[in-house]
Amino acid sequence: SGWSTAILAELVGPEGEVHGVEIVPELVERGGRAVAVFDTPWAGIRQAEPGVLGLPDLAPFERILVSAMAGAIPGELVDQLAPGGVMVVPADGEMYRVAKDADGEVSISAHGAYLFVPLV
Fold first, then answer.
1. Inter-residue contact 119 to 93 (CB < 8 Å)
2. Residue-wise pLDDT tens digits, 62-120
């Protein structure tokens, strides 16, 4: 819907960037309109490439927030984390925090059961 992207853009401020990614074209349009209401030109909604998770061409990212349930923690998104980066992702009914340290080592902690729409 774009609201999460808009809220994160307000938190990040104009010194950063926020990229929302949607697979459904109608949600890209609706999300773009929602973000535009907040006048945050450093944020936007992008059309996902079929079969591609995240935005590998723009990686690495300091933070990744996934708002759809994956079957397992997506390695493609872990690869897009910058050293020192953190990803929050629901996978297989659980919420996870994935952190990559300065050396690229990954640590994963579980934070309770959650339900989301499937990640496609």
1. no
2. 999 999 999 999 999 999 999 999 999 999 999 999 999 999 999 999 999 988 888 87
Whether 58 contacts 44, CB under 8 Å: no
Output the pTM of the full model: 0.92
Containing 28, the helix (H) or strand (E) segment is helix 25-37
Per domain, the residue ranges of the chain are 1-48, 55-120
* Cβ within 8 Å of residue 70, ≥6 positions away: 89, 90, 91, 92, 119
Per-residue pLDDT, averaged over 24-31, amounts to 95
The token pair at 35 is 């973000």
Assign 3-class secondary structure to 6-21: HHHHHHHCCCCCEEEE
